[in-house]
């Protein structure tokens, strides 16, 4: 029965003993969120993404509030990922030109780049969303892109990337194999890799990718302040390689230090590389082996981003892994909320944290976790809906046809 358990958790009490994380200081300097946001706000079509409140669900679960940073329509690309790819391309181009400022979206800026750098091709490996963001950013600036996907990537995700002007290459194996292959092929072809994960000697670009994500949290802080909330008391963030989670916890650690929100990093049980690394407990990132077979495509990563891991090891209060039915439950609850709460379109990876929060609050076996983190009626919980309907065929299988139901013994958790 153990493999069906909705929530398996691990507390990382070490994080609260770290006064100031060197990894946070290095990756997320104080001014960075202001800079990334200033950049993103110059992108034609940029809007602040909504922060939605689910007060009825919060009350039902015994929480003070649930706030959802809804990235499902970010720049019309259905996920937060474009924030990272676009900022990394911008920062890379600036570094190549040796300038501190560049109006990359003006005609003059584009001309200067072309004249000085010639035709560039950007390459990336992806489970779908990152590649779409890189392809979109490259095509906006008049560059080419080649995006590597693994063999189980759905046709819908491939087409979404191609529709943004990229050539798509399908690689045998998993996301991690695509990461390895793209770096080999890029070297041979003179392409510039824009990866959301790092390896020794390749650290600037993934750092810019992570920094780019902080725009979402800078916006969220402003939106919460407008509601009279200084900061969320808790944040649940979903993780693949851990870059989004590092950006989230890095942002809040930079802003609030030891007063930062309590945090839970959520992964699929079939691809729980950060959970595994925390469990090993030696401070090193560890790879999760297996076929990474999960519906949470954006989180199906077996190798942690080593840079991100350093941040999470120092700042994450708990690691949680959960099976696919937890994410499926989150998708359905977002889509058909309690009367009075807004509906939210959320894909498998986007909804994992809401599903996890529901089980954490309602499954009796999670009481020690709730207690350790102070998840109670005073808690103002921030979730990130990191994607919308990015794979319409699979989305309908879950939301319309009820695939991945909560198994029998756990259904009664929600029946009282
Ligand atoms: C929708 C979605 N959510 C979350 C993530 C996790 O991000 P990371 O791989 O940085 O942990 C991804 C990654 O692709 C994603 O596509």
Give the arrangement of secondary structure elements.
Elements (H helix, E strand, L loop, with lengths): L7 E4 L10 H6 L4 H9 L10 E3 L1 H7 L3 E6 L11 H16 L9 H11 L3 E6 L2 H12 L3 E7 L4 H8 L4 E5 L3 H15 L2 E2 L10 H22 L8 E5 L4 H14 L5 E7 L4 H8 L25 H10 L2 E5 L1 H12 L12 H15 L4 H7 L6 E6 L6 H8 L8 H4 L5
Parallel strand pairs: 3-11, 4-5, 4-7, 5-6, 8-9, 8-11, 9-10
Antiparallel strand pairs: 1-10, 2-3
Look at the structure and give the CATH class of the largest domain: Alpha Beta
Tell the overall outline: globular
The termini sit apart by 23 Å
What bound compounds does this protein have? pyridoxal-5'-phosphate
Under CATH, the topology of the largest domain can be stated as Rossmann fold
* SS class: alpha/beta
Tell me the strand percentage band.
Answer: 5-15%
Any low-confidence stretches, pLDDT <50, length ≥5?
Answer: none
Q: How is this structure best described in words?
A:
The protein has about 425 residues and is an alpha/beta fold. It has 2 domains: about 1-80 and about 215-415, Rossmann fold; about 80-195, Rossmann fold, CATH 3.40.50. Helix content is about 45%, strand content about 15%. It has 17 helices and 11 strands. It has helices spanning about 20-25, 30-40, 55-60, 80-95, 105-115, 130-140, 155-160, 175-190, 205-225, 245-255, 275-280, 305-315, 325-335, 350-360, 365-375, 390-400, 410; strands at about 10, 50-55, 65-70, 120-125, 145-150, 165-170, 190-195, 235-240, 260-270, 320, 380-385. The protein has a 7-stranded mixed beta sheet with strand order 1-10-9-8-11-3-2, sandwiched between helices. It has a 4-stranded parallel beta sheet with strand order 6-5-4-7, with helices on both faces. Helix 6 (about 130-140) links the parallel strand 4 and strand 5. Bound molecules: pyridoxal-5'-phosphate. Pyridoxal-5'-phosphate binds near residues 238, 243 and 387.
């Amino acid at each position: 029965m153990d493999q069906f358990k909705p929530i398996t958790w691990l507390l990382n009490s070490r994080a609260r003993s770290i006064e100031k994380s060197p990894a946070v200081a290095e990756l997320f300097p104080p001014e960075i969120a202001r800079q990334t946001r200033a950049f993103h706000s110059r992108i034609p079509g940029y809007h602040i993404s909504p922060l939605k409140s689910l007060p009825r669900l919060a009350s039902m679960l015994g929480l003070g509030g649930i706030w959802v940073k809804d990235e499902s329509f970010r720049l019309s690309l259905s996920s937060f990922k474009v924030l990272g790819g676009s900022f990394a391309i911008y920062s890379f181009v600036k570094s190549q030109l040796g300038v501190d400022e560049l109006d990359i979206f003006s005609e003059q800026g584009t001309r200067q780049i072309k004249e000085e750098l010639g035709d560039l091709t950007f390459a990336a490996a992806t489970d779908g969303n990152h590649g779409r963001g890189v392809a979109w950013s490259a095509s906006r600036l008049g560059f080419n892109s080649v995006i590597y996907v693994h063999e189980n990537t759905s046709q819908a995700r491939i087409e979404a990337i191609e529709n943004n002007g990229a050539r798509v290459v399908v690689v045998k194996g998993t996301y991690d194999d695509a990461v390895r292959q793209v770096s080999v092929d890029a070297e041979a072809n003179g392409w510039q890799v824009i990866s959301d994960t790092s390896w020794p000697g390749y650290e600037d670009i993934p750092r810019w990718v992570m920094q780019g994500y902080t725009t979402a949290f800078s916006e969220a802080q402003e939106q919460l302040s407008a509601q009279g909330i200084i900061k969320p008391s808790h944040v649940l963030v979903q993780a693949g390689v851990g870059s989004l989670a590092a950006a989230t916890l890095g942002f809040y650690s930079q802003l609030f230090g030891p007063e930062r929100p309590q945090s839970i990093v959520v992964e699929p049980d079939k691809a729980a590389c950060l959970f595994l690394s925390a469990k090993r407990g030696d401070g090193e990132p560890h790879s999760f082996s297996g076929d990474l077979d999960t519906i949470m495509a954006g989180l199906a990563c077996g190798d942690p981003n080593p840079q991100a891991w350093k941040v999470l090891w120092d700042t994450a209060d708990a690691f949680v892994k959960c099976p696919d039915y937890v994410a499926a439950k989150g998708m359905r609850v977002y889509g058909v909320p309690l009367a009075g709460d807004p509906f939210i379109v959320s894909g498998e990876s986007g909804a994992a944290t809401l599903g996890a929060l529901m089980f954490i609050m309602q499954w009796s076996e999670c009481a020690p976790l709730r207690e350790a983190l102070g998840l109670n009626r005073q808690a103002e919980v921030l979730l990130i809906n990191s994607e919308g309907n990015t794979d319409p065929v699979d989305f309908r299988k879950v939301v319309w046809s009820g695939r991945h139901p909560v198994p029998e013994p756990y259904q009664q958790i929600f029946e009282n």
